[in-house]
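Repro:
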Amino acid sequence: MFPIARLEDVVDLLDHLRIPINGTERLGRIGTVPYYGANGQQGWIDRPLFDEPLILLAEDGGNFDEFATRPIAYRIDGPAWVNNHAHIIRTKLDVCQSFVFWSLVNKDIRKFIAGGTRTKLTQGELRRIEISLPEESERQSIAQILDTLDTAIRETEAIIAKLKAVKQGMLHDLLTRGLDANGNCAHPNPRPRIFTRNRRWGGFRGSGNFVGCWMLRQPTASAFLLVHSEQTSVIRISGLMEYLCFE
């Protein structure tokens, strides 16, 4: 078993640096700086209060009862404004911030929550929350494994979302035009067109680092053109479409 430590022993709370601002005032100060609340970004503002890697944990209105399936904490980095509904956590110099984040993100802290119409995690109770604390080298290794898995999940989800869009775009063509003799989506126009630039699909980022894509239309294929760099390659998927990739 790992040793146990209280949060107050491994982090600094920066709640005293928050500056309250009401909704009306914020509407007059729209800018390019992310504005964060209890459970994530809530808009934009004109200037930052912070510019560093931080952990935000809901003070009130958090997902405390759904901790197993929804995060109660999240990470930010760069210029940011944080409102009064999130605690601001900076790990001490000898503590891996990523390890502390993973220790909190899906933790059951309901025994520390004050009841009422709107559940609230006070600073005093936040300081009393306990986490396991192995040696720093082991914290780093654990955090690296979890960060790598999280990145892989997010990249896979992005690819799945793009493929769902491809599928949705192909449904109409396949169900209304069918397939030609070669097993490709039948083209309604016998005259070939290389691609239609005005049907841009949007940016794409993932393991392939593609930056854009266009609907490709040929006599025997319906596909997306993924723009990468200067050289071209073609990838067939299920015999129904082709990807022209600039690599």
